[in-house]
Write a structure and sequence with these properties.
Elements lengths: L5 H11 L2 E3 L11 E3 L1 H20 L4 E3 L5 E3 H6 L2 H4 L1 E6 L6 E3 L21 E4 L2 E3 L11 E3 L4 H5 L2 H7 L6 E10 L14 E11 L4 H18 L8 E5 L9 E9 L2 E10 L3 H6 L24 E2 L6 E2 L2 E8 H12 E7 L2 E6 L8 E7 L5 H16 L4 E4 L5 H11 L3 E5 L1 H6 L1 E6 L5 E5 L3 H9 L2
Parallel strand pairs: 3-10, 20-21, 20-22
Antiparallel strand pairs: 1-2, 4-9, 5-6, 5-7, 8-9, 10-11, 11-17, 12-13, 13-14, 14-17, 15-16, 18-19, 22-23, 23-24
Helix pairs in contact: 2-9
Amino acid sequence: MPAKTVNDIVALCKRRGFIFTGSEIYGGLGGAYDYGPYGVELMKNIRNAWWNSMIYSRDDIEGLDAALISNRLLWKYSGHEAGFSDPLVECKKCGTRMRQDKMKDASKCDNCGSTDITEPRAYQLMMGLSIGATADGAVNAYLRPETATTTYTNFKNVLDAKPHKLPFGIAQIGKAFRNEISPRGFVFRMREFEQAEMQYFVNPSDDEVQHKMWMDARMSWWINELGIPAEKLRFMPHEKLAHYAKAAVDIEYEFPDGFDEVEGIHNRQDFDLGSHTKAQGDFKINATVLENKDSTTKLSYSDPQSGQNFLPYVIETAMGVNRAMLAVMIQAYEEEDLGDGKTRTVLKLKPSLSPVKAAVIPLARNVPELLNISNDIVATLRKMAVGRIELENSGNIGKNYRRHDEIGTPVCITVDHQTMEDGTVTLRHRDTMAQERVAIADVPSRVLEIING
């Protein structure tokens, strides 16, 4: 069964090199984490699964990688500068600062229970910058708090460079930054995090059908590509819609402490293109937007059949990559009783997501004949470019198996003295611990079978 607490994952991440506390040798920094050798691999594999689904499996979505630092005007007209804030309260007794909307009881401090708390005040979530040689400390740019807005401002650039008929999308994966009051849940809520967002531009007459289509597509991806059981996921419609939204629903995963959001699917109507377009008066904008006198470009679409020029609606899918990694690890984590007082911890990841795809292990350490054969197998597997292949030359086969169980390696390949006699090796399977003897020549095809499920 999945991990019972997030602390199980925290311990595993530190021990096996998935995630470390950022700036740890100086006491750390709240909401900042560093990804270790296996963490970067798992994150990369989740990104690849998303990118393959969004870009490589379709003809109607293009990729984008926009700048992390943006002109202040971009965030003014998106509404972030004035409205992207959380209600902050502070306990006068213990000094704890809290988001009022996340408190267990809005009248009591979550830390000490005191009712002596301040009135809520707006807390700006964007991280402002003062850039340029003549900057005097005043904020004149921002680190982006999301990837979506930089997608909207590139709508016309992408459409001109790679023409599409509606509907079509633009996808981004990248870092975002938010000045969170109280980062929590390990990597669940951080100040520096990664998003995978896709903005799908549709005819306003087709928005509801497209919103439902993307709800179904994204739920299917979580189940089939990340290996999350359907019963651990649910749709949760927003009770209160944001000012820009016509409809909004979250995909939630059942974490150890309850269901929480891992991805949002939103119908943003024409708010975004309407906010950033030049000549707003030329279009019938359904959403309420700020008057924009600074944009230099009309972010409109000309329908080749009807001849109409209009602002498309946007269906957004927005996934937290860090949250996806946390959910995947929690779901894959198992502690198994092997009998005789022995246990093992194993990450039963989908092989396509595993940080290490295969480990080659000489049975005895530094035996030249075994090591040479092992190196040849490693070289052959690496030429297949299926991901990370490791050579383990410690000589302790039991400890090597346990280590690779914990990091989720789907198969270990053991080279022993019989290998030198008959050219066969042992494949040891992670989930079942079953072993099979195969010829060295068959190892590449068997590893591919295992990785591809």
